[in-house]
Design a protein that fits this description.
The complex is a heterodimer. Chain A has eleven helices and nine strands. Chain A is α/β, with parallel strands linked by helices. In chain A, strands 1-5-4-2-3 form a five-stranded parallel beta sheet. A four-stranded parallel beta sheet of chain A has the order 7-6-8-9, sandwiched between helices. In chain A, α2 links the parallel β2 and β3. Chain A is globular, with a radius of gyration of 19 Å. The N and C termini of chain A lie far apart (37 Å). By secondary structure, chain B is mainly alpha-helical. In chain B, β1 and β2 form a beta hairpin. Chain B is globular, with a radius of gyration of 15 Å. The chains are: A alpha/beta, B mainly alpha. At the A-B interface, α2, α3 and α6 of A face α2, α3 and α6 of B.
């Protein structure tokens, strides 16, 4: 795998290597943050000094289906020892799927000094780097966040409907089986949390993990990503694109790829995604 | 299964132990400790590549389940968790195999997917919940089939056919 800087990304500064993280473990201006799907993973072991941000407990509201508000975000930043000047580096399991989700939510609060560790937890472990189960403690910090800004990178249902009606570009990043509306599971096994299967009319299918080298979890170089999203699917960097999956986690990964690695200027993540659309009375569905 | 218990005796006992953990962190540590007891499926039961017929649906940790006839009208459950990051799946595999193997099949068949939340709490993603619930359902269904086979006169053949 080539160096990040040589891969042709629009904004390579948003990715850091495992070497960079290893060199900055003791840097007080850097906070390493692990974000996983499996709640047992971080407590079992993590990069020394890394904090945990758990998407269910930390990033979602407990009752309303929505993300945390400004006050809760500020409290989270204080808990993990982050100031507005801190460089936050996310990593996690599932090829950084949950790390990019946390990254995306941090952007709703304008914490732009954020990066993703290329390759995530998989690459760090493959390289035999140190892990610990020791929980870090952080000194007191203060953090004044702006009000959450959903307007630039988040799409709500009405915008998606308007976008679809205008034949705007939509990317369905779920599996081909989910996209086609086939049942993923045997009868009587859990379904997708939606009453109907299929995809939003006009959406193209690009499973999120196509952006990743599966052997070590790193992002593919820009020319390969461009082949997938631009040449094969006809997406254009200057057009508005809305990405979706089931609840917006996998599509945050694609949002990250399109926005930072390929330089798309108007990408939004529809976090209502299929659990909203597939349950919405009267919403058009294509199979 | 004693009256008032929703689960077979050994599983109920383990749940009480986990519930007794005072904090979420202690409960998680108990589950992590259990995950470390995970052992690979014995080669006499199955070898890689595992058959898709034994794959737990909806589980992204690539989990496979196999059963073995214990010869006393009960089943031994074996799990292969192929994702090294699938610690929750490993913990659940250890719990299911350790507490439901040898339990009366009718009781195992009645184990509900609520078990996942009783063990892990509500802080699970939908995908993770689905995968773990899939493991519970696969065990319950195997027990259901096994119980049917016993009623028809023999578990052996049914159990063998479930473990390729």
């Amino acid at each position: 795998m080539t160096d990040i800087a040589a891969r042709g990304y629009t904004d390579p500064s948003v990715l850091v290597s495992t070497d960079w993280v290893a060199d900055n473990l003791a840097n007080p201006d850097v906070r390493i943050v692990e974000s996983n799907e499996d709640p047992l993973l971080y407590p079992s072991s993590h990069i020394p000094g890394a904090a945990e941000v758990d998407w269910t407990r930390d990033l979602n509201q407990p009752v309303l289906r929505d993300y945390l508000e400004k006050e809760a975000f500020e409290a989270l930043m204080v808990r993990i020892g982050v100031t507005p000047e801190t460089t936050v580096v996310f990593y996690g399991d599932k090829n950084n799927w949950w790390a990019t989700y946390a990254f995306w939510i941090f952007q709703l609060f304008g914490h732009s000094n954020a990066k993703i560790m290329d390759g995530g937890r998989l690459k760090w472990e493959l390289e035999g780097r140190p892990m610990t189960d020791e929980l870090p403690s952080f000194g007191p910090t203060s953090y004044l966040a702006p009000k959450r800004n959903d307007s630039k990178i988040r799409a709500f249902r009405d915008r998606v409907i308007d976008h679809m009606m205008a034949n705007g570009k939509l990317v369905d990043v779920r599996s081909p089986e989910e996209y086609s509306g086939e049942r993923l599971h045997m009868p009587d096994y859990p379904n997708e949390g939606a009453l109907r299967g299929g995809h939003i009319p006009g959406a193209v299918s690009v499973p999120w993990a196509r952006a990743i080298n599966p052997e070590n979890g790193t992002f593919k170089p820009a020319d390969e990503l461009s082949e997938i999203y631009v040449q094969q699917q006809g997406l254009k960097p200057d057009e508005e694109v809305i990405a979706y999956c089931r609840i917006g986690e996998r599509s945050s990964h694609t949002w990250f790829v399109l926005t930072y690695l390929l330089g798309f200027s108007k990408v939004r993540n529809y976090d209502g995604s299929w659990t909203e659309w597939g349950n919405l009375v009267g919403a058009p569905i294509e199979k | 299964m004693s009256e008032g218990d929703r689960y077979p005796a050994k599983l109920s006992k383990l749940l009480r132990r986990i519930s007794a953990a005072g904090t979420r962190a202690e409960r998680i540590q108990t589950l992590i400790d259990l995950s470390k007891q995970y052992r690979e499926v014995p080669q006499r039961i199955a070898t890689r590549p595992y058959s898709k017929d034994h794959e737990v649906p909806g589980c992204e940790s690539k989990v496979y389940m196999f059963t073995e006839d214990k010869g006393d009208g009960t089943l031994e459950f074996h799990f292969a968790v192929e994702n090294p990051h699938g610690i929750s799946a490993r913990a659940l595999a250890v719990i299911l195999a350790g507490t439901l193997s040898g339990a009366p099949l009718a009781e195992v068949a009645a184990v509900s997917t609520d078990l996942v939340y009783d063990l892990f709490g509500q802080d699970l993603s939908m995908g993770k919940s689905m995968g773990l619930q899939g493991m519970v359902q696969m065990v319950a269904r195997a027990a259901q089939r096994g119980a049917g086979a016993v009623a028809d006169g023999g578990l052996g053949q049914s159990a063998r056919s479930m473990s390729s």
